[in-house]
Design brief:
2 copies of one chain form a homodimer. The first copy, chain A, has a 9-stranded mixed sheet with strand order 1-13-11-12-8-7-2-3-6, sandwiched between helices. Chain A has a two-stranded antiparallel sheet with strand order 4-5. The first copy, chain A, has a two-stranded parallel ribbon with strand order 9-10. The first copy, chain A, has one domain: Rossmann fold (3-Layer(aba) Sandwich). With 230 residues, chain A is α/β, with parallel strands linked by helices. The longest helix of chain A is centred in the N-terminal third of the chain and has 13 residues. Chain A is built from 6 helices and 13 strands. In chain A, helix 1 links the parallel strand 2 and strand 3. The first copy, chain A, starts with a strand and ends with a strand. The interface between A and B is large, with 38 and 38 residues.
Chain lengths: 230, 230
């Protein structure tokens, strides 16, 4: 169950890709994936997993239902300047199976001092079946205690700061993502697709992942993708 | 000037990457990149180039100013369900240097019958210095006449339909993107990063592109990236 699998990046195709299937995925209803959005959220770290999860509904039934959750219903301005109207605020969000925390401009500083934000992440993430961060979203999860005792990763140039701020945590480097129990943490950026594709295969199998990948011109299974599964 | 360069995908690193620099890029003001958003626009094909262009401002001055333009100021719901408030409508959009047309759910059918949409694309794209499509955005550009006489590409499984609908056009296959004069067309999906990175290098040079790539964990210059420059 806790087998260690480490795929090293190689320049040639490898047949080593293999993903353990999740047990007992609900089939009588969609899995609900909530994407936390706050001012300064980074577009790609929101949209890469959002798109892949949403597209599952075209390849499996019932697939994943995606929505955004923000502290309030006020519009959220992303780091790059898009203006998003949240689907839910903290008070109205439905039960959540997968909590996704993309990085935001202040994931490493003032967001961590926002008690309502951290408390919501702690409570909802604690009950969720999976919790995923992209890039510096790992800081938010760590602050909420959701990384305690688990392996994790974050944006490469922020890994030192992460290790300093959370010295008890075991930060992993030079991997696209880490999967440890219910926690998935990704380096972020354009690598944000990798962890989401992996979770889709974990939940629904390689054929569903292959179909979702085709829609976004992502080769799946990958020939190489450095990651860690604990 | 019109040298043909075709990089084939290889499994090993190549030193063949080379991008011709654009002449006379404005340095006294940002280049203005408008992203056309309509209901059903695909997130990734919007956000991949949007993010890369926006991040130029951290690596060169004055870089690229990005904004969304929609037919009206009403909120736009993306294909995957995000709700965006446009920055401008057709009437209020400022002068545009780079027109970006991401694909949308109806890029191949009803959007092509929307005369106001096609006319706006024709006029604005005609005046713009560069016009870029992602995925099926190429259908919109083709309908507007902006692809006439040029090489182009679109989403792989829609290339046959594109060739049938626009039989005079020379559609290119098995390439991430095509650059022909002021026109850049991309296969779309996760490949949407490629064409935007390329244009950044074309405009600002490889060091700026490398810096922008680092922020999204995109290796630049790439070891291989199949594309065509006419």
């Amino acid at each position: 169950m806790r087998a260690l699998a480490l795929l090293l990046l190689t320049s040639c195709a490898s047949n080593a890709w293999s993903v353990e299937r999740a047990t007992s995925v609900a089939t009588d209803r969609p899995l609900r994936a909530a994407f936390l959005i706050v001012d300064g959220v980074y577009n790609t770290e929101l949209t890469a997993p959002y798109d892949l999860f949403q597209h599952t509904v075209f390849h499996t039934k019932p697939g994943i239902e995606v929505f955004t959750v923000a502290p309030t219903k006020a519009p959220v301005t992303t780091f790059e300047g898009l203006v998003l109207t949240p689907h839910h605020d903290f008070a109205s969000a439905p039960d959540i199976d997968i909590l996704v925390v993309p990085s935001a401009e202040h994931s490493m500083d003032s967001d961590l001092e926002n008690e309502a934000l951290i408390e919501w992440v702690r409570e909802v993430g604690g009950r969720a079946r999976f919790v995923m961060s992209l890039c510096d979203g790992a800081f938010v999860l760590a602050k909420a205690g959701l990384v305690d005792g688990r392996w994790s990763t974050t944006f490469p140039s922020d890994q030192d700061r992460y290790a300093e701020m959370f010295p008890a945590l075991d930060v992993k480097r030079n991997v696209s993502f880490v999967h440890d129990g219910k926690l998935l943490t990704s380096e972020g950026g354009a690598k944000s697709f990798d962890v989401a594709m992996y979770l889709i295969e974990h939940l629904y199998g390689v054929e569903v992942a292959r179909g979702v990948g085709r829609g976004l011109i992502i080769e799946w299974p990958p020939s190489a993708m450095p990651h860690l599964v604990r």
